[in-house]
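Subject: Glycoside hydrolase family 3 C-terminal domain-containing protein structure
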Amino acid sequence: MELEELSVAEKAAMLSGGSEWDSRGNDRAGIPSFVMSDGPHGVRRQLGAGDHLGLGASKPATCFPTAGTVAGSWDPSLAEEMGEALGHEAHDLDVNVLLGPGLNIKRNPLCGRNFEYYSEDPVVAGRMAAGLIRGIQSNGVAACPKHFAVNSQELRRQASNSVIDERTMREIYLTGFEIAVREARPMTIMTSYNQINGVYAHENKHLLGDILRDEWGFRGMVVSDWGGSDSAVAAVKAGGSLEMPSPGYTSVRELVAAVKAGTLAEADLDARAREVAAVARATRLDGVGRDDLLDDAVAAEHHEIARRVAEGSMVLLKNEATESATLASVAAALAGGDARPSVFGAPHGVSAPILPLGVGTRVAVIGDMAKTPRFQGSGSSKVNATREENILDEMRKLASASTLSAGFGSAGAVPPVTVTGYAAGYDRQGAANPALIDEAVALVSRDDVDVALAVVGLDERSESEGLDRSTMAIPQAQNDLVAALAATGKPVVVVLVAGSPVELPWCDDVAAILYVGLSGQAGASATVRALTGKVNPSGHLAETWPVRYDDCPSAGWYPAAGRDAIYREGPFVGYRYYETSGVPVRFPFGYGLSYSRFTLADFAPAADGSGVEVTVTNDSDVPGATVVQLYVSGPSRSGVLRPARELKGFAKVALGAGESRRVRIAFDRYTFRHFDVAADSWRVEAGEWTLAVGFDAETLPLTMTYTVTVAAPFGMPVVDPAPAGDAAPDPALGHYLTGDVTHVTDAEMRALFGREVIAPGKPTVFGVNDPISSWSGSRGFVARTIARTLERREAKVREKTGAPDLNTLFILNMPPRAMAKMTAGMVDSAMVDAIVAIGNGRTFRGACTLAAAHFRNRSANKRIAKELDHE
């Protein structure tokens, strides 16, 4: 039977989940139910009924590095290899739709979910996501990029309104999704919890209809984030296909009533049902049992892939030259009197970079995270890894091997390193413990220690879904440890574990910093291989590291405590701000060191005019890889406000010792365009553009002038630039022309967003979209007690366990409306209204109304269930 022949109720039933992770199928139309599962860096296939926060047990699966780490590779092909493995595991674990990748823009370093997102730049985010999506979908499993869109904070995440101008939204926050949709054609996409300029993402016709479907050509299924739908009817009209997890039959009742009343066209219902049915049929997984586990051989193979991804993604941030005479004497003794050359060819006793660690180096391993690894974040993406490694054990394994290759190919019987001891160094939960520091200092100060290897970073409480970071600092106990180790005079090599930037007060005092991010279950062995020269680090930062948090353009208003999260900084996010305003940073966007040395030469337009070419040379005797980056700057006399430069292309290049290669970076629809708000379309300015290539946003040794003519690229209108002195400033971004890009007046805000912006503050009357946390200010004793009890419980659990209480955080951030979407039909909108009355202090009236509404809801659900059973 054809889908259109189903009843209105049957079609409506297909547009909401049947359980926490399953869709509703329809046997009469031959449409199977399908299974959805997190996650972006590992399959979290839960056992039993499951839950959306990752609290319940899940089947073992490979934990790959998180997106924030993988982005450091700047290698879409590596992301695609990881995606192929993810899709393979999803298939084997009977998952039809894998909920990832996450590619929201990293607007601010404190977002608790930044480890799940790729970059502050949409080109990097889009290209990396496209690679992962292609890999996942090569297995017949649907990828589901998320969270669409303008989702930048965890605080009030289900009750926040992102207030943003159209140009900033298009150029910064949507372009990454556009690249992923156009290049990889995902079968599904997930909307975000937040509103965009007052309209929830899952019912935002401008976002889902005008842009996603009409402009980009997306023809797939749009699924809500779990509990992120508001009005089922408005969602169907706008282009939202599937509500998850399960609202029971409440949404079915609302849709049927709307069609009968003529307020919803049945054609819209049919369109959404076809989108759900298409995913169900395209991802049918025949012959796979839900109780199956990963094959041992597959698990072992994917562990190796996870290691390769980690190896290609870690970023060498610092590698100072140090006196190596002590190491030479050790190496000479172990080798029978012959001091070995370093990996760079410099003799021992001569100043050379500390990394890779020379043969025979005696290392003291310091840090609780060296022994108890942290390799992923907290929340719905948390994976039950098939195995775990830690740096201490991996160092000891390397040291105990009888014959190992040293550096990049020279063989010998001398162990590359010797582990002389281990000390925890700090309390995992951040408590001050001078005794632990004293123990570590005593170990490092011994005569048989050449180098201190300190593993430090953010703990489990710091980076999590549902919770933004309160500071950019790592725990003070760890800062104190590193300072004390540096004071011993021994070289300190820091392995930094974190999913996003941190402040580094001791940066100038240590010899080397290897940023490994959240590197997945094979991250420890990958780290040791990089430290000892088995692997040459080739990662580059996909986000700027400011010197201090106060330097961030959005520091003054992030996260928004009130309903409106106002994007006052406009397009000046990350390096676009720092490079335009001249604010010094710790490490620029795109930065990364190597054990090799690279140079660029002969920068020129491609012969056919479709891009640029440059010659890259490895000027060292060490094979390695680097990232060539293309930045553009618009015509110098222009009325279009732009950042100083913007990344528009990149290429990861692997070169042998002394090898040169001609590298081409193509132009595309994103290279020269800007969004013209007045014309409501993309435009390209004719004139002389400045193109630059280099290895990061600050290191751009080669530039050239490139003339864009009236020949419209990719079908976009080309316009002549208006002289800056004669043109009226862009009314949407006028304040930024003064160079002060972090302060916008209230009058400019009204011009920018077309309405008054509500100042943050606690509401006195609560609605269905105000989070439960706001009830702490309620006049009603019951509501106030509920909110404050939840706040105390979350704080107590976090203090006791060292990890956030995700379930309580979700409830605190949840608006009452979500109860009608996440209780499998036990709560409907009438009951939500009664609950809100309780929140507003009308406790008795609200309780009585709630009880009556409860029985009406049960009766209505039974009627619709009976009707569906009889179809």
